[in-house]
Amino acid sequence: MEKKTIQVALLGLGTVGTGVYKVLQNQREEMLSKLGAEVEIKRILVRNLEKAAKKVEDDSVLTNRWEDIIHDDAISVVIEVMGGMEPARTYIMEALAAGKHVVTANKDLIAVDGKELLDMAGTHHSDLLFEAAVAGGIPIIRPLKQCLAGNHITEVMGIINGTTNFILTKMTEEGMEFEEALALATELGYAEADPTADIEGYDAGRKLAIMASIAFNSRVTFDDVYTEGIAKITAKDIKYAREMGCDIKLLGVARNTDTGIEVRVHPMLIPSAHPLASVKDAFNAVFVHGDAVGDTMFYGSGAGEMPTASAIVGDVFDIARNIRYQCSGRISCTCYKELPIKQIGDIRSRYFLRMQVDDKPGVLASVASVLANNSVSIAQVIQKAKSSETAEIVVITDSVEERHFNDSLAIFQGMSVIRKISSVIRVYGE
After folding, report:
1. What class has domain 5-136+305-324?
2. How far apart (Å, rounded) are the C-alpha atoms in residues 103 and 132?
3. Of 37, 38, 39, 47, whose CA–CA distance to 13 is shortest?
4. Which CATH architecture has domain 345-427?
5. 141-300 in CATH: which number?
6. What gap in Å lies between CA 32 and CA 37, rounded to an integer?
7. Is 207 annotated in the active site?
8. Is residue 154 marked as binding?
9. Is 12 annotated as a binding residue?
10. Which of 88, 164, 232, 338 could form a disulfide with 250 if both were Cys (CB 3.0 to 4.6 A apart)?
11. DSSP state for residue 218 in the 8-state scheme
């Protein structure tokens, strides 16, 4: 087979960048057979040349000058694994404008500026691929764009943050409270020193925006996604949920409805029999419903050096094949619709409501009356605990618009017989 070499540049040599370097080195002997070409790293952009030299076989590929990459016409592909908005955004835009192809794992950037980047790629007939931006090593972007293109997809939902899933798993299986489980996640390296993006749902929200845009062919940005974290979930909530045959997971849920797109990330009670309920520890899973395929689920490692590198190198190989057969830019931006985004107050959910109330006659009737007056139907009421003066009750509602349920909560907070609203958690399903 005629040998063709495709030269690439790697922006960043941190955890993921090092993984990409390792995978490409491991694949060297089989590239020609797999691709009809060899992929060669010509440049690696780093901040600290001395530190980076310890990670590579040949330190002559290292540079701290972007100019050595952008002005090198021999470099066909730029792999961005720096993270953050800048200078990553500038480098990607300049690379695309120069006719280079780009692979990125940057969910922050794609979730906010994806349209502009894809438009630039389309203008210059370049490939911009970002499989690793969502769910690490799990293939989901390419399946949504290609394998499931024959479907009208109505729902994409999943566990798309490993840190929060690890925390909730420990709370479920070992009875830990949130702070204890978070401390363990930090100790084991699952949580960052500042875990805000994970535990508040922001990381999952960015990933959900990307998936919803592709699944529903309409632009969804991170600002469109309602996010709520897991810090208020308690071991008692999880215990009660399990008694009702449910688990609590931080879910990203995107639905394409007749009245607009729903995109939200928050804790939910989900039936223990649902496939997502069995996803434990730091694993991720994405559940997709299409009109032709029905239900499908994608499961695996959602982060980490090698799983993320696997997705990145898969994109690089895809681009290499496109270059080899002169068919680059086949699939650009797929957002050809302009569907409305529903506000959280207009979305319907069922609710798990746990309250501490005065233990005296008429309290349950008062609670039921407030809910009824705000169009909230009760599916179930359970008295869970009782002291000399206080009772704990759990109310499960039928499906209701969120704004009506919030109106009820506002009234409850002003009622003297209700001592504390301990938990409000949505329940999966209609």
Report:
1. alpha beta
2. 9
3. 47
4. 2-Layer Sandwich (3.30)
5. 3.30.360.10
6. 5
7. yes
8. no
9. yes
10. 164
11. B
